[in-house]
C-alpha cells in the first residue's frame, strides 16, 4: 500500500463505516435500521398441532416472487467471472486485505484488472469458484427452511450434543436487534439465558450488558461489514471475541473477495448464507411489503416498486437472522426489534436516519405472523414446522 493513499482510505472508511450496518447494493449512503410504531406483546402460546391453512392471493404471490434485481445481479456475476471490474464499484478503488486493485486506472479502457501477484491470482481463482457456485445455487427452493437444521453443524463447537434438542436444533435462541428500545430494558439476563444468542452487525455489548446481555454465539452481519473488516490487520472483525462464528449474507458479489481473504485468518467458522435461503427471505419480505402497500395505499400492485426503491429493496439483517433462528431453533425469542417514541434508533449509536431500502413495518408484520399464524407466511414448504416465537419489548 502506498503512503499517499492512506488519507483517502480513511475518508472512505469513515463514510463506509456509517453505512455498513445496511446492505446496500449499488450506493453508499449513510442510514439506519430498525424501527416502527407497532407495539408487540404476545403470550407464549405454542402453535396447535392441527395444521391450519391459509388462502394466498396468487397474483400477489407471483408478483412477490419476481426479484427486480435479478438481471443486474446476473450481469454483475458475469462481469466478475469474466475478470472485468468495469463499473462494478462506484468507488475509485477497492481492495481486499492487503491486495489493492485500482479500478479507475483500468476500467476506463475496459480491460481486466491487473492481477499483481501470484498470490492474488490464486485468491482470484478461488473467488471465482465461490461466486460461480453461489450463483448456481441462487434459486428458489421452498424446502430450504428444513435444511437450516444442517446449518447448526457449523456452530456446534462448544455445545454438548446431548444438550441439543430434536433434530440437533438449539433449544432456545435469542435474536438481539439493535433498537434503542433495549436501553433501560434490563433484559440482559434474559437474553444471556438462551442457549444460543445471535447478534447483529457487530453492535457492541460492552457497557450495555445489563440491557443487552454479553453472551454471543453467532455474529450475523451483512457482507459490507466484512468488507470493512478486510482492511484491518488479519481481517479483525470480532467485537465478541475471535472464537465467535460469523455468518453473513452477500450484498455485493465483489465481497466474495473479502471472504476468500478473511476465511483463512478466521479462527471460528465464517459462513455465508445459503443463496437459496437469501432468495426465500427476499420473496417473503417483498410479499409482506406488497400486502402492506396494498392495504395502506389502495394503489395497484404495479406501483409498489416506485415507493420501495424497486431493485435496491432488500430485507434487513435482522429479518434474515430471525429466519435463520426459525430454522435452527426450537424456540426463538426476539429482542430489540421495533421503535418507541423517545427511544434511540440504535442502542449503541447516535444514528437517526432510516432508509427506504428496508420495509421494517412489513418485517414486523412477518414477525407477528411468526408468533400468531405461521401458516400465513408464504413460500415456505408445508413440511417445515415453525418453532414457538416470542417477541420481547
Ligand atoms: C389479489 O390481489 C390483487 C391485487 O391487489 C387483486 O386485484 C385481486 O382482486 C386479488 N384476488 C383475489 C382473488 O382476491
Ligand atoms: C455431555 O452431556 C453428557 C450427559 O449430560 C455428559 O455425560 C457428558 O460428560 C457431557 N460431555 C461434555 C463434553 O461436557
Ligand atoms: C473456510 O475455511 C475453513 C477452515 O479453514 C474451511 O473448512 C472452509 O472450507 C473454508 N470455506 C470455504 C467456503 O471453502
Description:
- Helix content is 36%, strand content 11%.
- It is α/β, with parallel strands linked by helices.
- The protein has one domain (3-391).
- Strands 7-6-5-4-3-8-9 form a seven-stranded parallel β-sheet, with helices on both faces.
- The longest helix has 23 residues, at 275-297.
- The chain is globular and about 55 Å long.
- The chain starts with 5 loop residues before the first helix and ends with a strand.
- Bound molecules: 2-acetamido-2-deoxy-beta-D-glucopyranose (3 copies).
- One 2-acetamido-2-deoxy-beta-D-glucopyranose is lined by residues 160, 162.
- It holds the Pfam family Glyco_transf_29.
- It comes from Artemisia annua.
- It is found in: Golgi apparatus membrane.
**Uncertain stretches of 5 or more adjacent residues:** 1-19, 25-44, 87-93, 102-114
Q: What's the average pLDDT? A: 80
Query: Tally of extended strands?
Result: 9
Assembly type = single chain
Structure classification: alpha/beta
What is the string of SSEs from the N terminus onward? HHHEEHHHEHEHEHEHEHHHEHE
| Rg (C-alpha, Å) | 21 Å
* Count of domain modules: 1
Distinct small-molecule ligands in the complex: 2-acetamido-2-deoxy-beta-D-glucopyranose
Gross morphology is globular
Q: What can be said about the biggest beta sheet?
A: 7 strands, parallel
Instruction: Please report the number of helical segments.
Output: 14
Q: Helicity, in percent?
A: 25-40%
Amino acid at each position: 500500500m502506498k503512503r499517499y493513499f492512506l488519507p483517502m482510505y480513511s475518508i472512505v472508511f469513515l463514510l463506509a463505516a456509517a453505512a455498513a450496518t445496511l446492505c446496500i447494493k449499488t450506493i453508499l449512503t449513510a442510514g439506519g435500521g430498525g424501527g416502527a410504531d407497532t407495539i408487540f406483546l404476545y403470550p407464549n402460546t405454542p402453535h396447535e398441532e392441527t395444521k391450519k391453512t391459509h388462502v394466498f392471493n396468487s397474483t400477489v404471490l407471483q408478483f412477490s416472487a419476481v426479484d427486480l434485481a435479478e438481471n443486474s445481479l446476473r450481469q454483475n456475476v458475469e462481469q466478475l467471472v469474466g475478470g472485468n471490474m468495469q463499473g462494478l464499484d462506484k468507488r475509485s478503488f477497492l481492495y481486499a486485505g492487503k491486495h489493492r486493485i485500482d479500478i479507475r486506472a483500468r476500467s476506463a479502457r475496459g480491460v481486466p484488472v491487473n492481477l499483481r501477484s501470484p498470490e492474488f491470482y490464486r485468491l482470484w481463482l478461488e473467488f471465482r469458484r465461490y461466486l460461480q457456485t453461489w450463483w448456481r445455487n441462487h434459486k428458489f427452493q421452498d424446502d430450504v427452511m428444513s435444511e437450516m437444521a444442517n446449518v447448526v453443524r457449523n456452530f456446534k463447537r462448544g455445545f454438548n450434543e446431548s444438550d441439543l434438542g430434536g433434530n440437533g436444533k438449539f433449544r432456545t435462541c435469542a435474536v438481539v436487534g439493535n433498537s434503542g428500545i433495549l436501553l433501560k430494558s434490563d433484559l440482559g439476563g434474559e437474553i444471556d439465558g438462551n442457549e444460543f444468542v445471535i447478534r447483529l452487525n457487530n453492535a457492541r455489548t460492552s457497557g450495555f450488558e445489563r440491557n443487552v446481555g454479553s453472551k454471543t454465539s453467532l455474529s450475523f452481519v451483512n457482507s459490507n461489514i466484512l468488507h470493512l473488516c478486510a482492511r484491518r490487520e488479519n481481517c479483525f472483525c470480532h467485537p465478541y471475541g475471535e472464537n465467535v462464528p460469523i455468518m453473513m449474507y452477500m450484498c455485493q458479489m465483489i465481497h466474495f473477495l473479502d471472504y476468500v481473504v478473511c476465511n483463512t485468518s478466521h479462527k471460528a467458522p465464517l459462513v455465508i448464507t445459503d443463496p437459496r435461503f437469501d432468495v426465500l427471505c427476499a420473496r417473503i419480505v417483498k410479499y409482506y411489503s406488497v400486502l402492506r402497500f396494498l392495504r395502506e395505499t389502495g394503489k395497484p400492485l404495479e406501483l409498489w416498486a416506485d415507493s420501495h426503491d424497486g431493485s435496491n429493496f432488500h430485507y434487513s439483517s435482522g429479518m434474515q437472522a430471525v429466519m435463520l433462528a426459525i430454522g435452527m431453533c426450537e424456540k426463538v425469542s426476539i429482542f430489540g426489534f421495533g421503535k418507541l417514541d423517545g427511544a434511540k434508533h440504535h442502542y449503541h449509536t447516535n444514528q437517526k436516519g432510516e432508509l427506504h431500502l428496508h420495509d421494517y413495518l412489513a418485517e414486523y408484520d412477518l414477525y407477528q405472523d411468526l408468533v400468531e399464524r405461521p401458516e400465513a407466511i408464504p413460500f415456505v414448504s408445508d413440511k417445515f414446522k415453525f418453532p414457538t416465537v416470542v417477541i420481547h419489548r
